[in-house]
Design brief:
The chain has helices spanning about 5-10, 20-25, 145-150, 165-170, 310-320, 335-350, and strands at about 30, 40-45, 50-55, 60-65, 80, 85, 95, 100, 120, 125, 130, 155-160, 195-200, 205-210, 220-225, 230-235, 245-255, 255-265, 270-275, 290, 375, 380. The protein is an alpha+beta fold. Strand 21 and strand 22 (about 380) form a beta hairpin. Helices cover about 15% and strands about 30% of the residues. The protein has 2 domains: about 30-130, Rieske Iron-sulfur Protein; about 145-375, Naphthalene 1,2-dioxygenase Alpha Subunit, Chain A, domain 1, CATH 3.90.380. The protein contains 6 helices and 22 strands. The relative contact order is 0.18. The strands form 5 sheets. Strands 12, 13, 14, 15, 16, 17, 18, 19 and 20 form a 9-stranded mixed β-sheet that branches. Strands 2-3-4-9 form a 4-stranded antiparallel β-sheet, with no helix packed on it. The protein has a 4-stranded antiparallel β-sheet with strand order 5-6-7-8, with no helix packed on it. It binds FE2/S2 (inorganic) cluster and fe (ii) ion.
């Protein structure tokens, strides 16, 4: 049983909050690589804090605190130049590491620029996504999840926003039995059935095996703690094909969560082709699918009338902006939720005690490729990885 007080502890993600401090120990995707270019910087909000992200003329990415150290106007109005980001107010120039390169109104002999700096944050790219780290130094390693480092296939990188708290978006990943109901229309072979689900705690989070008596083999899905999910899908509309997926749900603030997806279809020619777009069956023109709270595209299935892309969002936003766990009634089949919450509580406590939470990797020798080999009944696709 979770009290309202505990629910606050588990859900709030701003600086200084228990869950927020734990979540600051991980790298987070905040943008598509291709979106960070040109003369305009990008405003970023992550874990209730504001930042500005840019790529200088040398291709170097930088993420800085949002307000210029001179007279504190927003750097989001600035201009990206070859050497860095120039503030719109009086033209001070900042490089990707937060060093001040110019204070143009000062006398050329002034040393003022050597006495000021901006806070900058570690940034790196993987699979067409920009990852940032805003926690205490030193930054840990970005785990080598297979879909971040695979080397062949058609790779679609895309996303959308859920208008609710990050934890309900995370918990749905450990909630295996919703597949048989919420997604009944797109997985007719599972519809309305009761699965046998085995949950296993792993170094990276949770693996679960999903068995149904009349299907030939099990389905496997993985929770990459705290908010990643790695799974295969073989939805009806894929017409017998399948794809491998990874999603990381980035907490923007207490009531907004950005879903960054990597979806991979196999290619016969062994090439890797990047698509900055939603996968073809998703029928959307923009890489970031527009969403609105409590508004969902219609589906033509006979169950809930919501298109498959929005079914999770409909259930998650339907729990409210911040789900009140003190009023739930969990059953024995909610084992995955119980295990996820155990790991969540342990991870928050670990950070409070000065230790790393679940899945944080610091030793390069202990950061091999994590190859999930995720399968869905008769599908087992081996990813090709050059690492
Ligand atoms: S406030 Fe940025 S240069 Fe003055
Ligand atoms: Fe789902």
């Amino acid at each position: 049983m979770i009290t309202q007080e505990e629910n606050e502890r588990l859900t709030r993600c701003g600086p200084g909050t228990p869950a927020g401090e734990m979540l600051r120990r991980y790298w987070w995707p905040v943008a598509f690589s291709d979106d960070v270019k040109g003369v305009r910087p990008k405003k970023i909000k992550l874990l209730c804090e504001d930042f500005v992200l840019f790529r200088d003329g040398h291709g170097q990415l930088g993420m800085l605190e949002p307000l210029c150290a001179h007279r504190r106007t927003t750097l989001a109005r600035g201009r990206v130049e070859k050497e860095g980001l120039r503030c719109c107010y009086h033209g001070w120039l900042w490089d990707a590491a937060g060093k001040c390169l110019e204070t143009p109104a000062e006398d050329p002999s002034s040393r003022l620029k050597d006495t000021v700096s901006m806070k900058s944050y570690p940034v790196q790219e993987a699979a067409g996504l920009v990852f940032v780290y805003i926690g205490p130094a030193p930054a840990p390693l970005l785990p080598k999840f297979d879909l971040l480092v695979h080397s062949t296939g058609d790779r679609y990188v895309w996303g959308f926003t859920d208008h609710c708290n990050w934890l309900q978006c995370a918990e749905v990943m450990a909630d295996a039995t919703h597949l048989n109901w919420l997604h009944a229309g797109v997985y007719p072979m599972y519809a309305g059935k009761r699965p046998r689900v085995e949950y296993h705690e792993r170094d990276y989070g949770i693996e679960y095996l999903y068995n149904m008596d009349d299907l030939p083999a099990d389905k496997c899905s993985n929770v990459l703690f705290p908010t990643g999910n790695r799974f295969a899908s073989a939805r009806k509309e894929l017409k017998g094909g399948s794809r491998q997926n990874m999603v990381i749900r980035t907490p923007v603030d207490d009531v907004t969560t950005d879903n960054f997806f990597i979806s991979l279809h196999a290619r016969a020619d062994g090439k890797l082709v990047q698509h900055n777009a939603v996968p073809p069956d998703r029928a959307c023109d923009t890489q970031w699918v527009p969403t609105e709270f409590d508004v969902y595209p219609a589906g033509d299935e006979e169950w809930w009338g919501v298109a498959s892309i929005a079914q999770d969002r409909a259930a998650l936003e339907g729990q409210g902006r911040i789900h009140d766990r003190s009023r739930e009634n969990l059953g024995a089949s909610d084992k995955g939720i119980a295990l996820y919450r155990k790991i969540l509580k342990e991870s928050i406590e670990a950070v409070e005690q000065g230790r790393d939470p679940k899945g944080v990797i610091r030793d390069p020798a202990k950061n091999p490729v994590i190859d999930f080999g995720t399968r869905l009944h008769d599908i087992q696709r081996k990813l090709e990885i050059e690492a």
